[in-house]
Design brief:
19 strands, single chain, about 450 residues, Transcription Regulator spoIIAA, disordered C terminus, Rossmann fold, binds iron/sulfur cluster, alpha/beta, 6-stranded parallel beta sheet, 4 domains, 5-stranded mixed beta barrel
């Protein structure tokens, strides 16, 4: 009698890169016969794909592991694995600290996940694989694994980072920059499009330098992707202000499939804090890039990251951050309190800004950003935009997707036939977090249906 397939649950913390890595691991394991299981309690294999960018993220992972212990006590055959950056950073210590953990592996071991989980299941071993790709070649390949494709998909085109921003753990957990060849990436794009993907977001920690050490560049990759028939939209993250060259900026005005949206972290408005962070640009240089982007593409939406409370940040420094936030009017801002990470250069600078001051600064920045976004989004009421519908929302109240600028739009009169299609939507309501409106192509009678009242708009 054949055995029932093993079931798999993957829980993901962190960035889009981790979401992509989780999809990749599930794809690799599905090819080996594993079946996805939504309920963590019922899965034979549980992988927790982790992020160590902040202290808080690591604590979350450790406390989740504690909560999961009773499941292992109930079923000792259940496999628990930690993957990703916490696995890479803590390695053996994690296996020593958590007796019910079976597997610890880093991001470079992803393509070996089947073999590693197999060793736990078949040989009863506790497995550690935090091996690092130390090959100095500037290129790498990864086998194509595309079991299914959503309307909008991420695709990793490079790994690692050659910058050493003083607060960042990434170069220590993901190594130096290496890029996949354009031909291999384009093959993946074509496979995704064949399966129904319309929008692809290329991923890299420092994506502007894609192809470094090879004759290939990000601009060339974008041109090649622009030629893929059936692909409608191209995006990429994450850019570094110093490495965003004029060729890439010009493409926002010339490559038709490149969305008018860019994530360009500025982290701090203060030149002395930027120096302490080793970000390699000044406020003025950052603002000049923004000007160039807006000249190349007036409708471009720029999102960003901000850190408050970096060691040495004074009130005057923080005011410079507020100044940039007010001046640029970003389309989205990810804001964080500084979190010292062991192993980074900033760790030795201490954590001198008191937590209460960090909280207050974060609050001030959030209030400002919320006001800007609220105003920005409300200005869009009455306009029309094109939305790639990705899914029905969890409460089945509306369909959701993004417009070219990357804004989330809820559409109440679209049907499931719209999933995977780009439709024209008239914006009728907005708040600081999202937009909502009607599918212009739908029947007039449908348009007149009342939908969720403004008071329940969240
Ligand atoms: S560029 Fe980004 S990934 Fe690289 S070290 Fe700086 S913050 Fe980290």
């Amino acid at each position: 009698m054949s055995q029932a397939p093993k079931t798999l649950h993957i829980k993901t913390f962190g960035c889009q890169m981790n979401v992509y890595d989780s999809d990749r691991m599930s794809g690799l394991l599905e090819v080996q016969g594993y079946r996805l299981e939504k309920d963590i309690r019922n899965a034979d294999v549980v992988l927790i794909n982790t992020c160590s960018i902040r202290d808080k993220s690591e604590h979350k992972v450790l406390s989740l592991l504690g909560e999961l212990r009773p499941l292992k006590q109930k079923n000792p055959k259940k496999v628990f694995g930690i993957t990703g950056c916490v696995g890479q950073r803590m390695g053996r210590t994690l296996l020593q600290r958590v007796p019910h953990l079976d597997l610890v592996m880093g991001p470079d071991a992803i393509d070996r996940v089947g073999q590693l989980v197999g060793s736990v299941l078949n040989e009863g071993k506790r497995v550690l694989d935090v091996g690092f790709d130390t090959d100095r070649k500037r290129t790498y390949s990864q086998p194509s694994v595309i079991p299914r494709a959503k309307p909008s998909e991420f695709l990793t085109i490079m790994k690692g980072c050659d910058h050493f921003c003083t607060y960042c753990i990434v170069p220590f957990t993901r190594g130096r920059e290496k890029s996949r060849p354009i031909a291999e990436v384009i093959q993946d794009v074509e496979h995704l499009v064949e399966k129904g993907t319309k929008e692809v977001t290329f991923l890299g920690q420092n994506i502007n330098t894609y192809g470094k050490g090879t004759p290939e560049t990000l601009a060339q990759l974008i041109e090649a992707a622009d030629r893929v028939a059936g692909l409608e939209r191209i995006r990429y993250v994450t850019s570094h202000p110093r490495d965003l060259g004029d060729d890439l900026i010009a493409q926002f005005g010339s490559v038709s499939k490149l969305c008018p949206a860019l994530h360009l972290p500025f982290q701090s408005g203060s030149d002395s804090v930027l120096k302490g962070m080793s970000r390699l640009y000044t406020q003025q240089q950052y603002l000049e890039k923004i000007e160039k982007l807006k000249r190349a593409c007036p409708e471009i939406a720029i999102s960003t990251d901000v850190i408050v409370g970096f060691p040495g940040e004074t009130d005057a420094d923080f005011k410079e951050t507020l100044k940039v936030l007010a001046q640029v009017e970003f389309s989205l801002v990810f804001m964080f309190k500084y979190s010292p990470r062991p192993g980074t250069r900033a760790f030795a600078m201490g954590d001198e800004v008191p937590e209460s001051v960090k909280d207050e600064r974060l609050h001030q920045a959030q209030v400002l950003v919320h006001q800007i976004l609220d105003r920005q989004n409300k200005n869009l009421i009455g306009t029309k935009t094109h939305v790639l519908i990705e899914a029905l929302d969890k409460k089945a109240k509306h369909f959701s997707g993004r417009n070219p600028q990357g804004k989330i739009v809820h559409v109440f009169n679209a049907g499931s036939a719209c999933i995977g299609k780009t439709i024209e939507v008239e914006i009728t309501e907005a708040n600081g977090s999202n937009l909502r409106g009607y599918y212009v192509g739908a029947l007039r009678a449908e348009r007149n249906q009342p939908f969720v009242s403004a008071t329940s708009f969240s």
